[in-house]
Amino acid sequence: MANINTKIFDNVAVLCGGDSREREVSLRSGAAVCKALVDAGINAEVLDVKSLSEVGDNLRKYTSAFIAMHGDWGENGELQAKLSSLGIPYTGSNPQASSDAMNKWKSRELFAKAGIRIPNGILYDEANLRLETLGTRDIVVKPESGGSTVGVSILRNFTPEDLREAVNFARESYAGDVLLEEYIEGREITAAVWENNGEIQALPLIEIRPKLGFYDYANKYTSGATEYIVPAEIPESVAAKIQNAAVKAHEVLGCNSYSRADFRLRDDGEFFILEVNTAPGMTATSLVPKAAAATGVSMSEFVKHILELAHV
């Protein structure tokens, strides 16, 4: 990228950790990002930030902050707003986009208005539960906010007790409402998006095939538990539509720099967006680095580019 002041590389803080259920994954993302930055010749260090109150004047000595936080205040716009108030350039999306993406109900509404197909869904309301609106007896129960598939259950031919247990599991994982969505039978597809050469570009699609069960926390972060096909082996016309939808979702939310959209693809070629992650995982098993590598972009090249975008 031309005309970038190299002083932005002088002292970079890689922010990770937090106090959410995704803390351990965030620490792994932070370590991987920091190593990649150092390999690129950048002076970077990991900062394990355990609470938002730790983010203050002590960070002013850094020229940039690379956000490798996952979940809660590290990803929902609160950290981003704090860094903005301190005048510290940071990677990823602005506070509003981060907040809207984290709130799955809000993002669903934005996607639907933009013409991106979403699964049928309702917020859990025990006093007025209308499961018939989902159109299926196979449903997904998940926190309205959060990531890494923490607190998610898939229910098939379930009992009222099964539903109560799944709702309680979601609530124990993240505070707030619980979202019920129809389960889309099909393939798990993810589309990473980055801003490059003044354009929002979709990277090659990845198909995710867990060896056992669904793509839950364990399958995401256990080496060898999941097979990743890059690029996804689907018709080019379908792949192009999904990539276009990922770019549109990035734009609709007002994301910056990069994001990752998750989809379900049915056998008939119809696809549904599930969510957009504005602070995707960056561990050794994470999807965004795999997608970038499929285009010949190394982890070091990718994170350096994302850091540069924080100063554009």
Q: What helical percentage do the residues reach?
A: 25-40%
What's the order of the H and E elements? Answer: EHEEHHHEEEHEEEEHEHEEHH
Rg result: 19 Å
Total beta strand runs: 13
Specify the biggest β-sheet. Answer: 6 strands, antiparallel
> How much of the residues is beta strand, in percent?
15-25%
- The number of distinct helices, counting runs of at least 4 residues, comes to 9
Task: List strands and helices in order, with pairings.
Elements: E1 12-17, H1 23-39, E2 44-49, E3 64-67, H2 78-86, H3 95-102, H4 104-113, E4 121-123, E5 138-143, E6 153-156, H5 160-173, E7 178-182, E8 187-196, E9 199-202, E10 206-210, H6 217-221, E11 226-229, H7 236-253, E12 258-265, E13 271-277, H8 287-293, H9 299-309
Parallel strand pairs: 1-2, 1-3
Antiparallel strand pairs: 4-7, 5-6, 5-7, 8-9, 8-10, 8-12, 10-11, 12-13
Helix pairs in contact: 1-9
Structure description:
This protein has 312 residues and is α+β, with helices and mostly antiparallel strands. The chain is 32% helix and 23% strand. It is built from nine helices and 13 strands. It has helices at residues 23-39, 78-86, 95-102, 104-113, 160-173, 217-221, 236-253, 287-293, 299-309; strands at residues 12-17, 44-49, 64-67, 121-123, 138-143, 153-156, 178-182, 187-196, 199-202, 206-210, 226-229, 258-265, 271-277. Strands 8, 9, 10, 11, 12 and 13 form a six-stranded antiparallel β-sheet that branches. Strand 12 and strand 13 (271-277) form a beta hairpin. Helix 1 (23-39) crosses helix 9.
